[in-house]
Amino acid sequence: MPLFNETQRFQQMWIWILLLGICGVMIFGIFQEVFIDGRSSMSIPALLLTTLVPVGMVGLIRSIFMRTVISEEEIYIRFFPFITRIFPLQEIKEAYVRECAPIREFGGWGIRWAGKRGVAYNVSGRHGVQLVLHSGKKVFIGTQQPKELQRVIDQLEVR
User: Fold this and answer.
1) What is the pLDDT of residues 9-29, one digit of tens each?
2) Residue ranges of the alpha helices (H) in the chain?
3) From edge to edge, which strands make up the β-sheet containing 138-143?
4) pLDDT value at position 43?
5) Under 8 Å CB-to-CB from 125, ≥6 apart: which residues?
6) So what's the pLDDT on residue 39?
7) Choosing a second label site near 129 at 20 to 30 A (CA), which of 16, 22, 113, 158?
């Protein structure tokens, strides 16, 4: 039975405006070349590829999610479709909820490696749990539920 379970998706408006804008420009260009000009200088496979790549990118971004599950034994992260990480509680030296500046600290959102600051798994927002492992490695896991996460961290035998 999980103590904490959260699923997050990329929902920043600027990402969708950018992606849909790129798709719109590419699809309009194909539409104009094929239907308005009446002919195409591109081959049919090139036309299909030019259409499918941006649509595929939208589908990929839409399918990405980050799931964080905390149980009495471990902290589990699934950043679909890229990575799954499990941190057994006995490997965690410290765990605390904190606010961060994702762009300044980690260079943005997503799966980010930031040298001495460690690795961050963050979809959006500014809050998360900071893990410090016994090995010295640092892991930041973003959340949209910092108060609930703090309550769960306080219950665990990790300080």
Assistant:
1) 877 677 778 878 888 887 787
2) 13-31, 44-63, 102-106, 146-155
3) 92-99, 127-133, 138-143, 119-122, 110-113
4) 73
5) 142, 143, 144
6) 67
7) 16
